[in-house]
Model the fold of this input.
Amino acid sequence: MFKKLTAAILTVVMCLGLSTSAFADEASSDVNHSAGAGGTMLFLDILREALGIDMGENSEAYVTDVDEALIDVYQIITTLTAPELRGRLVGAPGNEQAVAYIYSIFESLGLAPFGANGFLHAYEQEVFNPDLSNAQLTVSLADGTARELQLGSEFLFRTCSVPVDVIFTLAQDGTWVDNHPEQEWQLRSSPLNMIVPGRSGIIESGVVLENPINSDWPPTTHITLYQELYDTLMEIGIEEVHFRADDSRRIDTVHNVVGVLEGRDSSRAVVVTAHLDGPGFMGYIHSPGANDNASGLATIIYAAHILAERRDELEIDVVFAALNGEETGLIGALSLIPELIERYSELYNLNFDGIGATGSDTYFLFGEEYYDYHLLSVFMEIMAEHGFAYFDPISATADHTAFLFHDIPAISMAQSYMIHTPNDTIEFLDIEEIRLVGRMLAEFIIYGGSEMHIRDAG
Done:
């Protein structure tokens, strides 16, 4: 069924006249690496015709084992991290391809659409296109030469202040000062690592990819140079750095993907979330976003399949939401929550953001321990039963935070390994562990998910 699904998506791509070169089979695999073709109703109409699916076939009675032919975790992550998606940057074509792909999976599982637009939940947010920024970084050196660095191959940036045109010079006291006298860039732990009062900014070495969005969250401005180049330039001596970028922001319609498994009591719900957007691309560099957060999406999809086969056992609704705009300020979650509150008298949230990283044996649990003691304690208990190690709960920002803003009980299960770098690939994921977390999630919902975890102090 799942191979039929991906083959159908490839058919849609061809029907829409898109390039299929990136969807060719690998020599060692007979699985298409399709990523969908866009979030349009044309896509969905062609997809239904190509699949020829009677959705009733997915409403079988209870099954003990998960049908791996239908839900192939490896295939889901491979598709979402395909090069042509360029890291699923919000507002970019790769993001909409991911939306369409997840839509097709929700439909194939027999989830009920959340709203009038099927599984699509539309909202507006500011987006940014690095390809249109015309970013330029020129370094003047102590030997009298100047070098213009290439975006992607030599530097990356995120700026909360675009358009920007700024010159930095190194002062005698070791601080970097820009051409706005009221703003001093203070040197921190290493050269080119700076903070701006009022609008913090960083220039650093290494490879870190962030979303260059004019937003108060995250609040930092990054200019990142590759380590080898950074060392070479510092050896010669950097006298001045000139950075400029055009404003390529725009307001765009963005989509969450939301489906529902209805329980006996549809006035209450557990909302299971994972964000679908990633840090995206800059030049030819992109962060595939395997751990962050194709792994979380695969986890909740795997759980959705198990629960779809056992829907008769559900006491309350289970809402599955692939959220957009997490990397730019939790915007997709914040846009969806008012509609969830209008629909349900009681709800709580379980969020998954980085699952199965091979370089991390222990999970973070994000939540407000004082207020969400009950939800955290119950979830920690089931994690321990399944052999998952975790740190003591901490307060940190992820999509669950948007629910906490509305005083809704919420926690995140998370890992952070290789994220926002070109190395965030499927090779660093334990696929079996992702399946195990998906099974644990399904078990939690079936056997204890109907309990409303009221926020209290325990």
